[in-house]
Structures are given as C-alpha cells and as structure tokens.
C-alpha cells in the first residue's frame, strides 16, 4: 500500500509536481512561439509561391502577346494574309510558302507555341502548328464561337481565354489562347482574328515546379487555384467547393493578401495568400492547411508530454534508490548484468533461491535474475546438445547412403571397360556421373562459386541428353558477371532435375531454359520448362511453407531424389537473408518458372 508519509512518496510527489509544471510551461511556451513562427513563414512562403506563379504566367503570356504584335506589324505577312492565297490552287502555293517563311522568321523555328491561327470573318483560315494548313471554313461556324465575338468587341486589345478543347478540331488538348482582332489597314473595322495558343500543361507545369520542395515536411501540402477576373476557374480543371470558397474569401479580403479562413468543407483552418496580375487579370491563390502545418509541432508537444510522464515514473525509481536498504540489491543486479556472458551464465548463490521469501522486492528480483541465468544456461545446453545430435545423425545417414570412394572406383572400372569396347556414350555417362559425385560428396558445406554449380548442372544435363538425345533441348544464357558469385551448393541442379521430372509428361521436345542476368543492385536467375507447369494449389502451399520456414531453427530434410524446393529456399535464406526473392509461377505459354533474385 502506498504511504504518503514515507520518504519515497514525498520525493515522488515533489519531483512529479516539479516536472509537470516545468513540462507544461515549456510545452505551452514552445508551442505558441513555434506556431507563430511557422505561421509567419508559411504566409511568406505562400505569398512567394503565388507571386512566382503569377510572374511566370505573365512572362509566358507577355511573350505570346509580343509575338502577336510582331506578327500584326509585319506588312508582308499582312499583305499575303489578305491576298488570294486561300484559293488553294497551284498559283497560290508560292504565296503560302512565303507566308510560312515570313511567319517563322518572326517566331523562330523552335516552335515556342502550340498553335497559331489567323482567320477572317469570311472564312479564310491559316493554321500554323505541326503542319501549316490553309483552308476556308464556314463564316456561320465562326459567328457561333463566343470568344471570337468577344475578341472583336475588344477592338484589337488582347483577349486571354481558356479553351478546354480546340474549337477548330485540329487537336484535342486544353489550351490557353491569346487573341486580338485586326483589320487589313490601321483605322479600319477589324475583320480578322490572330490567335496564339499554348498547351495548358505548360502553365500547369509552372505551378507544379513552384510547389516542388525537397525539404518540406511530410504531410504538408500547398494547393494552388487560378481564377480569371470573372471568377472562372483556370487551374485546376475540376471545380470544387473549396475553390469556390477561396474565391469568395478573397473578394472579402481585398485589403490584405494573407489571411486565415475556416474551411467548412474540411473542418480545418486554411492559410491563404493570393496575387492579382494586371496584365492577365488572373488571380493566383496559394493555400495550406494550418492543421497540417502545425502537425510537427503538435507531435513534438505530445512527445514532450509522453516524456514527461516517463520522467514522473523515473522519479519513483529515484525516490526508492535514495533509500539505503535498497541500494545493495540494485548493485547486485548491476554486477550480475555486467558479468553476464555465455561462459558465466551459472551464478554462485550464497543461499538457495527457494528460501528468499523473507527478502524485499528488489532482493527477490535479484535472485529471480540469478534463477533466470541458471535456467537460461540449462536451455542453452539442451539446445546445443540437441543440434549436435541432429547434425551427427544426418552425417551418419549420409555416410550410410553411399561410399564415394567405392563408387568412384566402380564408375572408373565401368568407364575403362566401355572405352575398351568402343562404347563412347557409356564413357561420357561415367565421366559426367563421376563429376557429379565428386561435386556432391565434397566434405565442406560452404558456398561455392556459381560457375561450379552451373558446371555440375551441365554434367547432369549431359547425362539427360545421352538418355533422351534430341528430345531434350537446353538453352543456357548466364552473364559472365554471375559466375563468381557465392551460392549454396546444389541450388540449381535440383531445380533442373524437377524440370526433367515433370516436363517429360508432354510430347517432346522438352525445353529447359536457364537465364541469369545482373540487375541494378543485384542479380536474377530464372529456370523454366515447357511442361504442364505447377498446380495452382501446389504454388499456394509452397509459398505458405516458405513463409513458415525458419532455417535458423530447422532446415527441411534431404530427399532421396534431390534437394526439395523448400530446402533450397532455406539455404538461400541463410546465405542472403531478406535480400532473397524466391518465386514460383507458370509461364503464359506453358511450363513452370522458378525465379531466384537478389536485390540490395
């Protein structure tokens, strides 16, 4: 039971109260101070973003405007435009070519714009884009287009508009258009339109570039909206309730370019900054959620509060450590931990652990720790003994299966007898079989070079060719850079053996393909056959076994006819760890596919 008159309780309450007051004062002051700084910097950043985007927009539109003026001030171009070059006959081809030459001499050959259109009310239409087109369209079609009527109403003043689709059906992307009306001679009534179009993505890319912040905090996001003077949304294309809310808010905050509003749609406070352009008459709005902006500060505040609670708990420990009667068991535990190692797990006890019931909690903890050391030592010894017995049993089992020296001698005698009788195919069988036995029965279990594993697989395939002749076709395409890699022994040949085992159930030829290639930061090995492929349930079952297998605890046993896929996966996992990707699948054209990839 906790007693408030004890030294431990008084120390605990005093330190806890002090820590709580300090933490609350610090966190509150820090939160208010940092929040104010972040809000000011965010407002400046938003204004800089909106100003930068506005300046880039004006630069692009001014370039379009100056180009339109240059074209209209070109007398040769004007003269050709009002000539008979739209009659589309052989005599006008030179005029059209001259028109193109003059126009490109003004705008340059880099094609800064998406498209340039010049047309008259009567229907003469010149389009300069990827290809130059001179045609005559219906005057009624021209009269139906509203923005053209607006351009004539401006009497030569520029008109900037957003076209979600090119009205001339020459292309489909959305464009920003700058147009102005003009006449054959200055002072006359405007009868023609010059339109310069720029792809919408040029302007959207300006916004995206302005929002790139490699050092920005995760979770912070600035949104940008662009409106024309009528409140029509230019960017983004989709109108939202939030965009309309922002537009209405700037109409009520004409005396300041930075302010905060309550967003009823997201139930958050949004910081807004906007910039108006006299040239384009567009308004660029940059907004950011205040909640997201202050999220790192809020997280820091919460972390400080958590650490405060931890500090209060530590205070309890400090108060107990003050007591002299409790310092001795703490020191004992400390010495026990410092001296702990695999060779000193067994402690020296002054009295039996079972008789410690009269000691206080920390004394009991000390003896419990000593008891844990005893039990840990016993468990470790049992695990080591069990593993040693298992390895010993496997070694005896392998040695009992074959005597390599006896087999070598027998195969050598068979080879000599076959050579004396002119049986060259039997000689080749013996040579390949001898090479395989030598590779399999080598004593060490360390990784081997991939070239050795590949050579062992070639020996096996040579035996299969001698048996099946032209019915088996093997394609091996392995990059030289993979030959010196360290891989587990018997990694490749058992998979190829499985291919032979299951692929021969179809009509020959039986095709086996081995492809090895390097990848950025790793390599990949693919073994494929043209057989019936894996059963779908078998793939699911094997993948489940892969996930459950822990090679540090137990490696699946050997099989008489080779290493199983599960055994191969386990040994690869021991060598490569989490870098391994071992997948089973069926090829769309038929056959099983085993893929081993290592990606760093």
TrEMBL record:
The chain crosses the membrane at residues 12-34, 303-322. Residues 324-381 form the HAMP domain. One of its GO terms (molecular function) is kinase activity. It comes from the Bacteria. The keyword Repeat does not apply. It is found in: Cell membrane. It is a multi-pass membrane protein. InterPro entries: Bact_2-comp_sensor_kinase, HAMP_dom, HATPase_C_sf, HATPase_dom, Sig_transdc_His_kin_internal. Its main location: membrane. The keyword Methyltransferase does not apply. Keywords: Cell membrane, Kinase, Membrane, Phosphoprotein, Transferase, Transmembrane, Transmembrane helix. Gene3D superfamilies: 6.10.340.10, Histidine kinase-like ATPase, C-terminal domain. This is Histidine kinase. It comes from Paenibacillus marchantiophytorum.
